[in-house]
Amino acid sequence: RSSRHTGELTSHFLNQEAAPGIEYELELTEKFLPTLSLAEVSDIGDHWMTTENRVILYTAPEKEDVPVPAQDEILAVIAESEAAEIEAYQEADLSSPLMKEEPVAGSIVSETYHDLVDVTEWKLSNGVRVVLKPTDFKKDQVSFTAFSPGGHSLASNEDFIPASSAAGVIASSGIGDYKTRDLRKKMAGIRAQTRPSIGELYENLSGNASPEDLETLFQLAHMRFTEPRTDEEIFSASLTQMRAAVKNRLNNPAAVFGDAVEKKLYQNHPRHQPFNEAYIDSQNLIESFEFYQDRYKDAGDFTFIFVGAFDLKIIRPLVEKYLASLPSQGRVETWRDIDDDKITGQHEVVVRKGIEPKSSVRINFYGPAEWSYYEQYLLGAMIDVLKIPMREALREDKGGVYGVGVGGGMSRYPTGEFSTSIRFGCDPERVEELIETALDVVKTFQSEGPDPDDLASVKEMQLRGIEKSFRENGFWMSALQTYIKNDIDFDAVYKRVERTESLTAEKIRQAAIKYFDDSNRMISKLLPEE
Predict the structure, then answer these.
(1) Which among 301, 310, 349, 468 has the fewest CB atoms less than 10 Å away?
(2) CB neighbours (10 Å) of residue 169?
(3) pTM, two decimal places
(4) Which parts of 319-400 fold into alpha helices (H)?
(5) Contacting residues for 118 by C-beta, under 8 A, at least 6 apart
């Protein structure tokens, strides 16, 4: 990547670091790495970790009930730990195979080839759908993502917290017979990893591997469905860490501000509560495990997408063995609308927290929208153009902010909705002035449309991005996922240039009128304490 080259040359110029080029660096690494010994590595540690020239930093809350230890007390604690007899770590038995039993392979029952995008689609005997896009962009990368409708929307409000945290809790517990720590050692030298996640509308699984470790990737994916595990020790440690984080969270102005905005915006909905002691007390390892099992016990409605450096002939038997053998119960299900609609009308939230002379401002617009692939694009393009005059007005003309963010998006499910926002930090004395300026920029944009040069600049940037994206695995993964979830023809990927070239100032202006409609608007301000 260009950034790697510029970084190396900058260090060469400023710090006189050698810049022999990546090919020569690889040659040196291949020459010297095999010669390094454990004794040499340990010796480096002994020389660097010494008591000479040591600086000890201590931080603590500024509270009366939290005494600050004296220097002698801190040094005594460190000396005691250095003199302690520590029992040597006992290595776990890592000799057993990753999988307990070899799965019985299923089969591919149908195949479809989409020639324009070079995508192959297989339907498996257990109902799983597999979409494959071989590429030669990165010769050492194979990635996949998988998803199924449902997510934690299917949990009750009472079970929401253990359900929404289920994937993270179970993933951190390890897999099969291996705890996370042991699994990491078992996988030493192997480039393959998977990670489950459960969102509101979908349960997901993603991962990546080098082509040489492709079978291990499939084994891990299979085990995420069939051999999840719990680890009470890891779970307990996680709760301890969360309780420590919660203690001082309310002293963080940004956290208090975010909680207040969320509470007002979603009208104190039970699924939009702050991260506090009550949240931690609602965590439950068994309930998380049961919800995880329910979401992954039926793979029949999962779609897998593979993108990267693989050969269809090589990956085919792996798909049949590890994916077509996944359990399938024939469930037909989808997500549920959890009724967390945003508050309607115009509202304001003011939070006074902290003593530093700085403020944060959020201006949110939102409302119902009729989703389409083109409308979603148009909203994003409009925001890209609006960023230019907004930055010029708030930062360059007014000199009131270091940076300003303009964002937004559109969702199709469970109901069509748009949301846009303007965010910036500023001097508390200038909050009202800069809010008025930001709203004036929007009104002018809605009435007069974009500057032709700004629109031309954005279109040029998008066209360059489109050209580059066709050679990136990440783009194809994202595009295929979007098309599948929204039932869009794969061929739409090649209409992006035409779509961008047809962008006009009037289309941008109309989008601004529609998606910065202030019928539903919330202005939120974080101010210092009086």
Answers:
(1) 468
(2) 23
(3) 0.87
(4) 373-391
(5) 133, 134
